[in-house]
Amino acid sequence: MLKIRLARGGAKKRPYYYIVVADSHSPRDGKFIERVGTYNPMLPRDGEQKRVVLKADRISEWLAKGAQPTDRVARFLSQDEALAGKVKWTQSNNPNKAQPGKKAQERAAERAQREADRAEAEAAAKVEAAEAAVRAKEEAAAAAEAAKNAPVVEEAPAEVAAEEAPAAEAAAEEAPAAEAPAAEEAAEEKSEG
Fold this sequence. Notes:
It contains four helices and five strands; from the N terminus they run E-E-E-E-H-E-H-H-H. It is an alpha+beta fold.
């Protein structure tokens, strides 16, 4: 199938295009049948030099033979006075072009599901923390109520307190003594290892 399309020329960052008639299977800048115009995008749009130069008679012959212009070339041809009636260009409309692909949509759905799960877990944690705070307040209130209603214990005479003090001191001395052998065993295990 024959195409009327652009073939790039020019230097790096200084594009210049040839409008060519070529087989649709040939490379963009490769083999072509005939050069039928030029396009220089570096020129200003409203300058005195023309950005697009076309050989209208040759293009009309190729169109008669069945050559199909690409979208960009069809735009150029529809703006030319000599070829305006032969080529009709309409702006293409692809509303789905901006839509992400299937995999991207799947990833977005997974990400949304994770966010929803995370938000649900945070909400559940907040509710649980609020319930725990309410229970703690209730327990504190119950403890305060119990303290108010508890019978008043009279203080023991000083003699009874004096007898209990040496017994508490003896229990305190026994506890560190019991811990000392365990510490010595741990130190021996470290030195052996």
